[in-house]
TrEMBL record:
Residue ranges of domain PatA-like N-terminal in the record: 5-159
Protein name: PatA-like N-terminal domain-containing protein
A Pfam entry, by short name: DUF4388
Residue spans crossing the bilayer: none
Amino acid sequence: MIRAKLDEIELGDLLRTLEAGRKNAVISITCPKLKGRIHIREGKIAYIQTHPGPHLGEYLVRFDYLTLEQVQELVKYQQQENPGTPLGLLALQQKMVTEEELNDVLHAQILEALATILAQQEGELIAETPPVDASQVLLPGVTDTSTILMEALRRLDEWMRGRVEPETVLQLAGDPTRYALSPDAWTVLEAIDGLKRARSVALECDLPEEQVYHLLYELKSRGILMEADVRPHDPLLMVLSDSNLIRRLLLVTLERHRYRVMLPPDLESAKRILEHHRLHGVLLEGADLPDKVRQLRALPGGRFLPIWLIAEQPPRGFWVRNARVTHIPKPFGEEDLLSALSVVKRPI
């Protein structure tokens, strides 16, 4: 086992050493604002998890390979029938995606997660041998560690040169056809409408979020984009969920439709947000929903706030009428979600 501070060991060197020895390992990283786990098989990166951070299921939706409903059904099947099978491999076995499509999303998710971890300067790293029953397996076409490490470092270097803030609203200022632009830059430009915030634009693209912020910075620096004269007031929603996947799916779907989303990690954080922000609604998912509703309703800002409960079955009991909550069936689709939220008045 290796335990060290991030300023005492170079993560890139450790990954190259594991690759050279074709080792199996799990590297756990704990930082002030992020936790991550890198799963190494035979020296290659099989998967990376970051919290907060993107989920593989989210990328399957962002790449339009699966719908919101399909991803949720797949996770439910995984939990009930195949708890030891990685989500990507299960999607491949169920013929929901092709091998090429799975490699696309795995590469994108690993790249974003690795670059995010490499950007951390404070924290602790623990590298140890994976347990015997570890479920992460190598899929065909997985990129060599050294190759994806170089790509992540290059992306990180680009991102650190400049970025726009997530709340920035941009509009076209010049003729983009006069410039030699990368395919990724054109992808980002297609999402610009003078109304969406940068975060909404980023989550509409099948690119790492930080990469989109950097591309927007470059396009603005070259005079192709400029800040919009009028900034729309998008409704502010809070999502409190026990599932990282549900949080990320709601974030992507709502941001794409110009809702601002806050993702507290727990109920106490949610209560603090409610005390300091003027929310337009709260979406709840997970265990102990009656208690969570009761505690939010007890706060001055939560007395008349719209609250939606995301669950497989409608809530039952005397508390439901008094709590004034609305049920969104799970698995939820985009139309179901937007229809439920239509009661929120969008400021012009």
